[in-house]
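2024-03-11 09:14:02 INFO worker-7 job=invfold-0412 stage=load source=structure_tokens
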């Protein structure tokens, strides 16, 4: 411990210490994951207060999302006590802008209404759905809605004024965008992204307000600055222009919000933007086991568009990171469970923190289901997921409700046209006008004139639902799929609406997997309601069972955080890399469009302290899946790493033949002659040995 370290209760290396001691003027820290960037930012705030006599309230530390802000605040509070930590302002860019806007509104005595995204029926989502429907005459699905929201965010963040020549994925994006903006304007509404542009224009228009903030925050620090967008960057420049005290921390390899307008180039051009500045580099990774550091750094080196950095591992090698191919979703879950039950943690009472990371929120449902069923404590870090409100889920539950209760006319009305049983609107109306005490089908048969074949058909439907009620839930869903041709009807519907049906297939599969673990239909319906509550509960729904040992998070929101053990799941093409980008890469024969996807994969890998599992299922219920191209890259890198060990004299341990050493390698191949302890020299194809886990190399690195 150095005296400075002791004073600040934190262990720093000499490079970090130098950065912490940075006083006035602009500074840039450019460094890889786990090198202590966030550590330095917090320590520097303490240093400014304790050594340079700066008042805590003059320091503004900005970061990207709420979780990162809270994490930093917590770390700071723990190290330096609440008396000073309460006065240092840790904020997200959005919360800071919100404060500016509020201040302005207070001055003006006028308040704009905030619209939030999460209220499905009232907020931004509903508004955008309605606008989209009106303009395109077709409905938008959840995936497309998310994309639309991102595209609106991109326009705002990049200050795009002219849409001509820009490719947006949303149908008639410019019209939808303008209708949305007009609606907000005439109803005095403001959304999440408006907060940034609005705050910026307030600060540029009201010099007194700007002066107030410039005087107040004479030291500005920004973490995760690689994800700053144009508007955010401009804001920071505006705020810090007078003092020039801006301390920026970034890793261009972790820039993952390009699709919403992040522009790491600003950071790389920092000197151009801010004039002469101090640049600090931190080159030692304190987070991850040596082999995780080496694998992830060779992985990211495949990106062309980046600044190369040194990543020396401080920690010794631990467990080899693993790529894990499973035959199905179900096996993927089983793998996670087995590993968790194995306990991973050898150090006894220290809690072993595990994260399950994925690209898409949908991946969290079955994992949450699994953990909850097994009494493993977990928390979900994400926005509310409206899976259980989706029409497909509603329809499937309506099928089952109707099977359980043939009088349930409401359930019947949701699905009569999905049964492929020639049930007409007139029949439905007849049923709706019935008393409600009689079975729906009986009402219809008595209520309208029907041809014999129609009567026969209805009798058959009645029987089918009675049989459905007796089935186990998984079989019931299989029956709905095969006999009522449910998915075919969904496919047709999606075709008509011009929406993707892949998403809906996926929802169906998730439902069926939940059903697999339920023994009765009633049990299944209860289970869905239970899961719905879990997801709707709050952002960090912790469930019973020994605290939150497992965190479920998207790769995007895992940025900046660390866990002892990381599972990255659903690593298939179409998921990561996403299908649109993959198509584009193939079409343009240009792999550089996948660089942001590779960075996202990298962010995931670099969250792990000790164990890293890269998991993917090779099939879903209805098709074979392709492993992510990044999985093959990782496997290739593994082999390259290993090849370094394939030199004369290198020691090996073979499962059958025991210890040995390489006598010679055949040129340009993986065939080796190895002398074993029994004196025999054997010729082995090392690649096959590795694939079958027959061989280990002594001290590869
Ligand atoms: P990311 O890019 O993922 O945000 P980072 O550069 O911000 O990573 P930190 O989160 O600050 O890295 O640090 C990673 C881990 O290394 C933390 O657990 C931190 O406590 C630890 N650490 C940082 N510096 C040192 C050091 N000098 N000695 C020991 N541990 C350290
Ligand atoms: Mg960090």
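2024-03-11 09:14:09 INFO worker-7 stage=emit residues=701
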């Amino acid at each position: 411990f150095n005296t400075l370290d002791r004073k600040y209760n934190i262990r720093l290396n000499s490079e970090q210490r130098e950065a912490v001691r940075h006083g006035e003027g602009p500074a840039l820290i450019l460094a890889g994951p786990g090198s202590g960037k966030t550590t330095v930012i917090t320590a520097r705030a303490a240093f400014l207060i304790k050594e340079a006599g700066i008042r805590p309230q003059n320091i503004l530390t900005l970061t990207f999302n709420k979780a990162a802000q809270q994490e930093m605040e917590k770390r700071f509070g723990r190290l330096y006590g609440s008396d000073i930590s309460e006065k240092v302002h840790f904020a997200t860019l959005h919360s800071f802008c919100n404060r500016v806007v509020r201040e302005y509104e207070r001055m003006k005595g006028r308040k704009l209404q905030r619209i939030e995204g999460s209220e499905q029926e009232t907020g931004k989502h509903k508004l955008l759905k309605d606008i989209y429907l009106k303009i395109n005459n077709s409905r938008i699905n959840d995936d497309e809605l998310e994309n639309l929201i991102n595209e609106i965010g991109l326009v705002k963040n990049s200050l795009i004024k002219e849409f001509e020549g820009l490719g947006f994925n949303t149908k008639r994006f410019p019209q939808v965008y303008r209708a949305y903006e007009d609606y907000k304007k005439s109803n005095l509404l403001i959304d999440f992204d408006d907060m940034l542009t609005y705050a910026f224009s307030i600060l540029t228009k009201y010099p007194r307000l700007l002066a107030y903030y410039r005087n107040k925050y004479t030291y500005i620090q920004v973490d995760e600055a690689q994800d700053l967008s144009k508007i955010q960057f401009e804001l920071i420049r505006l705020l810090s222009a007078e003092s020039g005290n801006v301390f920026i921390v970034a890793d261009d390899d972790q820039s993952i919000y390009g699709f919403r307008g992040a522009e790491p180039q600003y950071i790389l051009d920092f000197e151009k933007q801010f004039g002469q500045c101090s640049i600090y580099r931190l080159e030692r990774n304190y987070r991850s086991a040596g082999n995780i550091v080496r694998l992830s750094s060779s992985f990211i080196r495949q990106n062309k568009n980046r600044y190369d950095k040194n990543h020396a591992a401080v920690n010794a090698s631990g467990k080899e990171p693993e790529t894990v191919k499973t035959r199905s979703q179900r096996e993927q879950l089983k793998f996670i469970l087995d590993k968790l039950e194995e306990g991973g943690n050898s150090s006894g009472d220290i809690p072993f923190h595990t994260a399950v990371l994925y690209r898409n929120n949908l991946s969290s449902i079955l994992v949450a289901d699994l953990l909850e069923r097994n009494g493993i404590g977990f928390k979900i870090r994400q926005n509310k997921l409206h899976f259980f409100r989706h029409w497909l889920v509603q329809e499937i539950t309506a099928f089952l409700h109707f099977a359980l209760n043939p009088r349930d006319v409401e359930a019947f009305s949701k699905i009569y046209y999905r049964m492929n049983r020639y049930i007409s609107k007139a029949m439905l109306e007849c049923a709706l006008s019935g008393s409600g005490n009689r079975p729906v089908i009986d009402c219809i048969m008595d209520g309208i004139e029907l041809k014999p074949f129609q009567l026969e058909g209805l009798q058959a439907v009645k029987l089918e639902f009675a049989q459905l009620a007796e089935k186990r839930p998984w079989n019931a869903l299989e029956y709905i799929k095969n006999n009522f041709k449910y998915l075919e009807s969904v496919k047709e519907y999606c075709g008509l609406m011009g929406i993707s049906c892949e998403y809906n297939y996926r929802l169906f599969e998730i439902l069926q997997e939940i059903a697999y673990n339920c023994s009765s239909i009633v049990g299944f319906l209860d289970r869905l309601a239970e899961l719905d509550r879990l997801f709707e509960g709050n952002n960090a729904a912790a469930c019973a069972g020994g605290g939150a040992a497992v965190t479920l998070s998207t790769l995007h929101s895992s940025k900046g955080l660390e866990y002892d053990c990381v599972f990255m799941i659903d690593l298939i093409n179409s998921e990561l890399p996403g299908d649109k980008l993959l198509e584009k890469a193939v079409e343009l024969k240009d792999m550089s469009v996948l660089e942001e996807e590779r960075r996202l994969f990298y962010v995931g890998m670099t969250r792990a302290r000790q164990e890293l599992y890269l998991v993917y299922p090779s099939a879903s219920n209805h098709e074979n899946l392709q492993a992510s191209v990044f999985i093959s890259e990782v496997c290739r890198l593994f082999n390259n790493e290993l090849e370094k060990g394939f030199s004369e004299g290198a020691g090996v341990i073979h499962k059958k033949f025991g210890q040995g050493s390489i006598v010679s390698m055949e040129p340009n191949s993986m065939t080796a002659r190895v002398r074993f302890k029994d004196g025999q020299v054997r010729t082995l194809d090392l690649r096959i040995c590795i694939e079958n886990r027959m061989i280990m190399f002594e001290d590869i690195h």
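2024-03-11 09:14:09 INFO worker-7 stage=report msg="The pocket of adenosine-5'-triphosphate (ligand 1) is lined by residues 11-13, 16, 31, 33-39, 251, 254, 286-287, 560, 562, 606 (CB under 6 Å)."
2024-03-11 09:14:10 INFO worker-7 job finished
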